[in-house]
Every structure is written in structure tokens, then in C-alpha cells.
Amino acid sequence: MTRLQERLLDLLRGQAVKRSVLFNHFLKLNMKKLQFLPLMALVLGLGLTLSMSSFSSNVNLGINWYPVSTDGNTITSSTPISEPPSNGDGCAKNNDQNVCAVKLDLTSTSTVPATVSAATTAGYFLEDANRDL
Amino acid sequence: MNKYFSLHILSDTCASLLVLLWSYSLGKKLMAFAEFRMQMTDQVFPASMVPFLVYGLLLAQLLCAALLLFPKYRLLGFWSSLLLMSLFTGYIGLVLLKAFTQVPCHCISILAGMDFKQHFFFNLFFTAVAGLGLIFTLKKERRDKGMDTIVSHAPLPA
After folding, report:
1. φ, ψ (nearest 5 deg) of residue A100
2. Which of A54, B13, B21, B86 is 20 to 30 A from A111, alpha carbon to alpha carbon?
3. Does B15 lie at the interface with A, CB-CB under 8 angstroms?
4. Shortest CA distance to A125 belongs to which of A60, A55, A73, A71?
5. CA A97, A103, A105 angle in degrees (round to 5)?
6. How far is A17 from chain B (nearest CA, A)?
7. Which pairs from A93-96 meet CB under 8 Å and 24+ separation?
8. Could you tell me if the ipTM is greater than 0.90?
9. Cβ–Cβ contact B32 with A under 8 A
10. pTM of full prediction above 0.90
């Protein structure tokens, strides 16, 4: 290794050390200033997410309407929607276009199928609503 | 109660409410990332924009929560929260006004079973929280700099 390369390496190492010292100083300075109330809110928010997801995975889902994407087959959310399907005024039982929501009977399962065809195959499908475009 | 102390508490409370909102929303999206991505594709945005929107939203929410946690950057956190909440509220407002040809899926809502109208008022509340937090923090900072205490430090007349 040439002297120039060694010097360059030293310089880079020095910069890296300087950067890490500055970063540590920044962390120490700001961690001390973290306040109790917002920090509790952060913990509560993350805790709520975890508990909601574990709760929803342990309960059977009952009979509900689920939104379907514009391709007419993909179920976009495992969160039920209110009846009649209210993902917009253009979604109703007596329309002619592709499927916008499906009513599924998920009393025997805790997972929402990913597609309408999968729900039909598994025997969860009850009825559907269509778009009016 | 001391006015400065009240401002401090009010600013803290607003920041905490927003941190709760951002952390819950972020956690929910990350826990069901595939579902969130799918929900975004069923909105009114062009398909090419969806990946940028998905990661952009996550990053923006993370940044807002992080900025609000540190008093030094809280003002910036309130500004960014206000901007983000205004964008969300504006989007839902446009949907309610039927400004888009396609009716987007309301499955994107933060709480299960909430429709667009309820979500609009929910968002308005948090936009107000961000606005109030910004005002309280600005007042507190003015007080910290002594700009509001000139009169109280003036010598009493003989």
C-alpha cells in the first residue's frame, strides 16, 4: 500500500470516528430530552396495534361484507364493511358491472380469503354487490 | 395554574395524541403490509404512483412520530403532522364531494368499519389537534425567548 493510500485510509477512519462520536453525542443529548407523555403514547400506539392484530387473528369472523378491488376478484381488506356495501355510492346489489363487495360467511374460520374465487371454492360466499360505472 | 406550565402540558398532550395516531397507523400498516399495498391500489391514484405512495406514507408517518417525540424538533413535527393531516382530510373531502370518477375503497380507514364521512370528522379532529399543538408550541417558544414577558418584567410605577 502506498503512503498516499495509507493517508487516505487514515483520513477516512478519522472521519468515521468523528461521525460516530457526533452521532453518539446527538443520541445522548436527545434521549435525555425525550418526554414521558409522548413516549407513553408511542408505546400505547404500538401496543394497541399488536393486541388488535393478535385479537383479530384468534376470533372467528362471522358473516360480513368485504371490499373487492376493481379487478372484481381480489378481496382488498380483511376489515369488514357495513351493509349494504358502502365503499361508495357506485357499489350496490342491483348493479351490472364487476364485483365491488362480497358477503362471506366466515363463522368457521379466522382468516379472510384473498380472492372471491377462493371464497367461493371454500364455500364462504353468500352474495355479492357490483359496481355501476 | 401557571400559564407557562399549562402551555407545556397542552403542547405535550397534543404531541402525545398525534404520536398515538401515527404509531398506531404505522404499526397497523406494517403488520399487514401486503393488505395495505392492496388497499392503496384500489384508491384513485395511478398504478405507477402506488409504490411511492406506500413507502412515502410510511416514511412520512414515521418521521412525524419521531419529530414529535423530541421537544427540540416538536415544532417541525407539528408542521409536518398538520400538512399530512390536511392532505388526508382534503383527499377524503374530495371523495365525499365525488370529485373522482372512480369511487375508492374505504377499506383504507384507520379504525374498522369507519366510513368516509366518519373518517372525515376523525381527520378534522386530528388536524385541529395538530393546529392547536402548533399554536401552543409557538406560544411556549415565544415565552421561552422572553418575548411575552416584557410587560411583566417592566418596573412598577412609583
Report:
1. -115, -20
2. B21
3. yes
4. A73
5. 150
6. 25
7. A93/A127, A93/A128, A93/A129, A93/A130, A95/A129, A95/A130, A95/A131, A95/A132, A96/A130, A96/A132
8. no
9. yes
10. no
Q: Look up cell 398532550; give the residue.
A: B13
Res A99 pLDDT > 90: no
**B131 three-class SS:** helix
Give the Cβ contact number of residue A9 at 10 Å.
11
Percent of chain A topping pLDDT 90: 0
Task: Specify whether the CB–CB gap between B117 and B95 falls below 8 A.
Answer: no
Residues of A with CB under 8 A from a CB of B: 30, 33-35, 37-42, 44-46, 48-50, 52-53, 67, 69-70, 74, 76-82, 86-91, 133
Dihedral sign, Cα of residue B121, residue B65, residue A78, residue A63: negative
Question: CA B58, CA B22: separation in Å to the nearest integer?
Answer: 9
Please name every residue paired with A105 in a beta bridge, in sequence order, or none if there are none: A63
Q: Are A114 and A74 in contact (CB under 8 A)?
A: yes
pLDDT of B74-102, one tens digit each?
999 999 999 999 999 999 999 888 887 76
Using CA atoms, how far apart are residues B105 and B115, in angstroms rounded to an integer? Answer: 10
Please tell me the distance from the alpha carbon of residue B23 to that of residue A46, in angstroms, as a whole number: 6
H or E segment to which residue A52 belongs: helix A36-58
* Range in B38-47, B116-125, B143-152 the model is least confident about: B143-152
Question: Other C-beta atoms within 10 Å of A56: how many?
Answer: 15
Q: Return the pLDDT at A75.
A: 84
Size of interface A-B (CB pairs under 8 A): 112
